[in-house]
Write a structure and sequence with these properties.
5-stranded antiparallel beta sheet; about 25% helix; conserved putative lor/sdh protein from methanococcus maripaludis s2 fold; about 290 residues
């Protein structure tokens, strides 16, 4: 259930607050009348005093009465504002725009200060927590672009940014906790979804990149691939050692050994030997 900021969530039984408000309102009205009467009497006594028909004691007495009436009215007004506040606070409203993810009470339940009524998730900005290997710690920074994918929307990539980096390593995993925020204006992403995060720590233009699965070897850094070379009318599979640069999840950069545009063997590499004649077929024809 979506909810907007300041939308009503619940109302506490407020009969007592309504009664207090009515009493406070009546008190203010009475105190205003009392002050008006006292001010009129004050003016009358002052006029008599100036004409010599009233004593100074009478003048002082009525002035004090007027001050007390004004103070009494101020107190009544303060009580009225308090009654209004109590009544307003008996209506609980949402502090944010969001989605109600849980309801913790039902109508008629008793509640105490601190009791949870509902849980509201702020869905417009989504927080993703990811563990990053220690060796990448120096390359991660607040504001760094990130890309997010979730299984529910497998074909879509969401743009995000690193919000914060926990200052200490996790003692058990030796990883850094990184908090990533992304806008969720369409409210597509939900709490609890599993996310895959891409943080680009290095970039290189015009790099030769090949699928990780076509690379063989790897012992002591010795990687190799099979490249298809033309020899007269034959096609020959040549074993060629390569140097690997930047590694991504399923793609490796090749810094030496293969040039852009060369044909590689992508299936059955383990059955080949250097120099063997091969025939190129489409994967669709094998099935």
């Amino acid at each position: 259930m979506s909810i907007r900021k300041s939308q009503q969530l619940a109302v506490i039984d407020h009969d007592i607050y309504l009664a207090q408000l009515a009493a406070a309102t009546s008190s203010v009205t009475a105190k205003e009348v009392e002050l008006a009467d006292t001010e009129r009497e004050k003016k009358r006594i002052i006029a008599l005093y100036e004409g010599g028909s009233a004593t100074e004691q009478s003048k002082d007495k009525v002035a004090t009465a007027a001050e007390l009436a004004a103070a009494s009215l101020d107190l009544a007004k303060a009580n009225l504002e308090l009654a209004k506040l109590n009544l307003r606070e008996s209506t609980i409203v949402s502090p944010i725009n969001g989605v109600v993810t849980a309801k913790h009470i039902d109508e008629g339940n008793m509640v105490r200060a601190g009791d949870r009524i509902v849980t509201i998730a702020d869905m417009e900005t989504v927080k993703v927590i990811v563990a990053v290997a220690e060796r990448y710690g120096a390359e991660i920074y607040a504001g760094m672009p990130a890309k997010i994918r979730v299984d529910t929307f497998a074909e879509r990539q969401f743009e995000a940014k690193v919000y914060s980096i926990h200052p200490a390593l996790d003692a058990q995993t030796n990883t850094l906790q990184v908090e990533i925020h992304l806008q969720n204006d369409e409210l597509l992403l939900k709490p609890g979804m599993f996310a895959r995060v891409i943080l680009v720590t290095k970039q290189k233009a015009d790099a030769v990149v090949i699928p990780r699965d076509v690379i063989l070897g790897g012992k002591i850094g010795e990687y190799y691939v099979y490249v298809i070379e033309e020899a007269s009318a034959e096609k020959i599979a040549r074993k060629r050692f390569v140097k690997v640069g930047i590694k991504q999840a399923d793609m490796y950069e090749i810094t030496d050994g293969v040039k852009a545009g060369e044909a590689l063997v992508v299936n059955g590499m383990n059955f080949l030997i250097d120099g063997i004649s091969v025939e190129i077929v489409r994967i669709e024809d094998i099935k």
